[in-house]
């Protein structure tokens, strides 16, 4: 018997479970019979499906400690993207920060904080957003990637959902008296509270326990506490339990109990610390998690933050309104945080002293103390503060800051040329308010005396600037004449007249007998053969010529006036006067263009000492 297409479909997909049923299907021809078959076939299919689903396969919810694998796929047309971070695949969503948002708020709104494994979440978040140096500080308009799902390549552990963390705000802590209690064996919350306070049962099981839950967000179930566990208990009074748990608008004015206006020095502080190279943040919102649970949010516009190179962070309180309880919570939770109150009437010098003393700098020198810095050109600096930001060279920024606050005294200013040289050494001088400009004079021309290589060229340069005439490589008759049967002639490197006497400067090395013979015949002889130290050559030559000189380390002041800052540089060499009474510095030290300009301002001619 032929079978219709519909009958074949039922046979192929419904698969009757008995021969008799199969025969029935083949014999059915009428439309009604076909409907009956389809209806019963669907019932069979549904039953088979339910049977498969009811098989004793373990469900995910029953495998709390098992692992499973997930593959992430990006659906076309949506904004999420898949990134690979180490051995994990991450489904990330771009997010543009809005006014008033902070990172933890964004994570909470996307339900990510309730998924557990916060450490992994934060680690991946930092990998996705390398520009975020501080996760606590984000700014409106900033674009960040949020990891919606994090999946290891070979599976991830199932995660229990922890209790939602409760935020503790400044308002709720202000005025509330708290007590820390360490759980003892056999304790329960009810037993401890009833033993300490006389609380009506109606309030105990409603308002008071709600406060306990809020103050101890790290305790998932307050009915289960363990010996050694620390809990925070609000000291009972009718006023405490009546306080609403949610933030109350009427309490907000308590935060404004401080100065009506911010410290007048706030702008000056910003300018100074920015000039020093420290990071000043006064936009966005600063989130500070508390070690005991909860968090504190501070608007950076009201509480600017200074992030120091040392890793220390100082929160400024320009209105002097941040409660001491809150300050202690911050400082006890984070050892690198400090709060500095800008009190009414407090001067800039005192505020700076307080901030600098807490900034964690390796070294800070006070008013008038000198810091000596070694190197090819040693430098000595002093000011109101000399701040060493780093003992090691920095690729960006300055190692050392010389800070001076001008008061009634005029204060010194620094030569612009020397200022440029100091900055190449990593030293920055800040005078505030800025002193009068450096006395304006026509910029002097750098006078560098040309000199060739070698000792002979150096001596020739000295002879020229001293106004001497001389001859090179000549033969001079020492004994005899044209009619004599015996004549003594000597080859000389340099011949000249000094102190009205014939003089010889020798570089090649005359025999000792010849030198003695010359001196016996009233010749003056300067022996420089074999000498290579340019400073010694200059000193010996000047001494031979009878020119006064000063050999050694020379200290030159780089500031005008008697006050601070005081800056001296020290240059090795020989100082003497030329034939026209101009000061000359002969130095083997390499001089930068700034140093050459500084010496020109000081009236020096420069004789570079090169012997090879």
Describe the structure.
By secondary structure, this protein is α+β, with helices and mostly antiparallel strands. Helix content is 28%, strand content 26%. It has 17 helices and 30 strands. Strand 12 and strand 13 (313-317) form a beta hairpin. The radius of gyration is 44 Å and the shape is elongated. 22% of the residues are buried.
Question: In summary, what is this structure?
Answer:
By secondary structure, the protein is α+β, with helices and mostly antiparallel strands.
Which assembly state applies to the chains in this document? single chain
Number of strands: 30
Category from helices, strands and their pairing: alpha+beta
Q: Return residue spans where pLDDT drops below 50 for at least 5 consecutive residues.
A: 1-38, 42-78, 155-173, 239-256
What is the distance, rounded to the nearest whole angstrom, between the alpha carbons of the first and last residues? 117 Å
What share of residues are in beta strands? Answer: 25-35%
Whole-angstrom Rg: 44 Å
Number of helices: 17
Write the layout of secondary structure elements.
Layout: H1 5-13, H2 19-27, H3 31-53, E1 67-68, E2 81-85, E3 88-96, H4 103-109, H5 118-128, E4 137-138, E5 143-152, E6 156-157, H6 170-173, E7 178-182, H7 189-196, H8 201-215, E8 230-234, H9 238-242, H10 266-276, E9 279-281, E10 285-289, E11 295-299, E12 305-307, E13 313-317, H11 324-333, E14 337-341, H12 348-358, E15 363-365, E16 371-373, E17 379-382, E18 385-388, E19 400-405, E20 413-414, H13 416-424, E21 427-432, H14 455-465, E22 470-479, E23 488-498, E24 501-506, H15 512-520, E25 524-527, H16 534-545, E26 549-557, E27 559-560, E28 566-577, E29 583-587, H17 593-601, E30 604-608
Parallel strand pairs: 13-14, 19-21, 24-25, 29-30
Antiparallel strand pairs: 1-6, 2-3, 3-5, 4-10, 7-8, 9-12, 10-11, 12-13, 15-18, 16-17, 17-28, 18-19, 20-27, 22-23, 23-24, 26-28, 28-29
Helix pairs in contact: 13-17, 14-16
């Amino acid at each position: 018997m032929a079978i219709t297409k519909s009958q074949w479909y039922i046979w192929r997909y419904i698969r009757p479970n008995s021969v008799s049923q199969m025969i029935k299907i083949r014999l059915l021809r009428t439309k009604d019979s076909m409907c009956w078959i389809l209806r019963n076939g669907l019932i069979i299919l549904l039953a088979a499906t339910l049977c498969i689903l009811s098989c004793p396969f373990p469900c995910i919810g029953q495998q709390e400690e098992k692992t499973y694998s997930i593959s992430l796929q990006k659906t076309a047309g949506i904004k999420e993207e898949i990134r690979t971070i180490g051995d994990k695949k991450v489904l990330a969503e771009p997010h543009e920060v809005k006014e008033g948002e902070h990172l933890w708020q964004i994570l909470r709104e996307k339900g990510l904080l309730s998924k557990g494994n916060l450490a992994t979440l934060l680690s991946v978040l930092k990998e996705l957003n390398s520009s975020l140096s501080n996760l606590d500080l984000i700014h409106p308009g900033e674009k960040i990637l949020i990891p919606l799902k994090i999946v290891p390549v070979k599976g991830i552990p199932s995660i229990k959902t922890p209790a939602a963390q409760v935020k503790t705000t400044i308002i709720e802590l202000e005025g509330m008296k708290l007590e820390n209690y360490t759980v003892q064996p056999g304790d329960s919350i009810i037993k401890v509270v009833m033993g300490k306070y006389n609380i009506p049962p109606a309030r105990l099981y409603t308002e008071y326990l709600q406060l306990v839950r809020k103050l101890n967000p790290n305790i998932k179930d307050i009915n289960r506490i363990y010996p050694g566990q620390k809990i925070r208990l609000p000291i009972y009074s009718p006023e405490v339990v009546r306080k609403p748990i949610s933030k109350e608008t009427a309490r907000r004015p308590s935060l404004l109990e401080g100065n009506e206006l911010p410290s007048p020095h706030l702008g000056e502080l910003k300018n100074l610390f920015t000039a020093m190279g420290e990071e000043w943040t006064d936009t966005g919102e600063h989130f500070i998690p508390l070690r005991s649970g909860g968090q504190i949010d501070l608007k950076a516009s009201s509480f600017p933050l200074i992030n120091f190179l040392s890793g220390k962070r100082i929160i400024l309180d320009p209105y002097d309104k941040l409660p001491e309880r809150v300050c202690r919570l911050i400082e006890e939770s984070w050892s690198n945080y400090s709060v500095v109150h800008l009190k009414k009437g407090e001067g800039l010098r005192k505020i700076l002293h307080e901030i600098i003393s807490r900034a964690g700098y390796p070294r800070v020198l006070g008013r008038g103390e000198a810091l000596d810095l070694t190197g090819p050109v040693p430098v000595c600096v002093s000011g109101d503060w000399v701040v060493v930001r780093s003992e090691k060279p920095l690729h960006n920024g300055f190692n050392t800051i010389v800070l001076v606050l001008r008061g009634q005294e005029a204060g010194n200013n620094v030569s612009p040329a020397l200022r440029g040289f100091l900055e190449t050494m990593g030293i920055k001088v800040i005078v505030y308010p800025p002193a009068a400009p450096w006395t304006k004079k026509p910029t002097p021309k750098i006078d560098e005396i040309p000199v060739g290589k070698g000792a002979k060229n150096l001596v020739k340069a000295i002879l020229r600037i001293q106004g001497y005439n001389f001859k090179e490589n000549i033969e001079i008759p020492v004994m005899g004449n044209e009619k004599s049967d015996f004549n003594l002639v000597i080859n000389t490197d340099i011949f000249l007249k000094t102190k009205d006497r014939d003089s010889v400067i020798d570089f090649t090395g005359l025999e000792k007998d010849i030198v003695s013979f010359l001196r016996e015949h009233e010749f003056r002889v300067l022996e420089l053969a074999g000498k290579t130290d340019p400073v010694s050559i200059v000193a010996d030559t000047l001494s031979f010529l009878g020119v006064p000189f000063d050999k050694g380390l020379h200290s030159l002041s780089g500031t005008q006036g008697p006050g601070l800052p005081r800056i001296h540089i020290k240059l090795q060499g020989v100082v003497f006067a030329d034939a026209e009474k101009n000061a000359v510095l002969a130095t083997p030290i390499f001089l930068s263009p700034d140093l050459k300009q500084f010496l020109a301002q000081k009236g020096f001619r420069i004789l570079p000492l090169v012997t090879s």
